[in-house]
Design brief:
Number of strands: 0
Structural class: mainly alpha
Radius of gyration: 21 Å
Distance between the termini: 37 Å
Shape: elongated
Largest sheet: none
Strand content: under 5%
Number of helices: 10
Helix content: over 70%
Length: about 180
């Protein structure tokens, strides 16, 4: 199994937790006739702006947009509902947060295909965990990201050493740490 630095995995979790970003990252909106009625009512001004953006698109961009729409329509209803909800949540974010998520997604897209595949697999595993475990891992990630860079490097070095240990060495270390806490 391929291992990745924690910040890269955090970026993946953020990017993949909003799959609708693929439709909203700096690309023009679909034409009004492509909008789903369930996605929410748009004002006349919004429709006009979307139509103007669509008309300015190159033929290739229009075809990519049509393909994404076909893919969206092929999703099961519950998946379409999830994508719509993610899109609604994304649109409600402050501009800085939207930009950060777009950057995370762009960083992810620049990774080699094998790394993207492995990160997607890690993310699937993460989503398969119980809610309490996911919350614990998120809390640990936040603590890691808040730590001073020197402390983060120390934490990564500890992780590297941990991964090199045999199961017996890991068990011995756990026991020593339990004994230390008990003092």
């Amino acid at each position: 199994m391929m291992r990745f630095p924690l910040p890269r995995l955090a970026a993946l979790v953020l990017a993949l937790s909003l799959p609708a970003l693929a439709q909203t990252a700096p690309q023009p909106a679909p034409p009004p006739e492509a909008a789903s009625p369930a996605a929410g009512a748009a004002s006349d001004a919004d429709r006009r702006a979307a139509l103007e953006r669509f008309e300015k698109m190159s033929p290739e961009e229009k075809e990519r947009l049509r393909e994404r729409l076909r893919e969206f329509k092929a999703l099961p209803p519950e998946e379409r509902a999830r994508v719509r909800e993610n899109l609604r949540r994304f649109r409600a974010l402050p501009p800085e947060e939207k930009q950060r998520l777009r950057q995370n997604l762009a960083d992810f897209k620049r990774l080699p295909p094998e790394e993207r595949r492995a990160l997607r697999e890690h993310f699937r595993e993460f989503r398969g965990l119980k809610a309490e475990r996911r919350a614990e891992l998120r809390q640990r990630m936040r603590a890691y990201l808040r730590a001073h860079p020197e402390r983060r490097e120390e934490m990564m070095e500890n992780l590297r050493r941990w991964r090199q240990m045999t199961p017996e060495e890991r068990q011995q270390l756990r026991q020593r740490l339990r004994e230390r806490r008990g003092q």
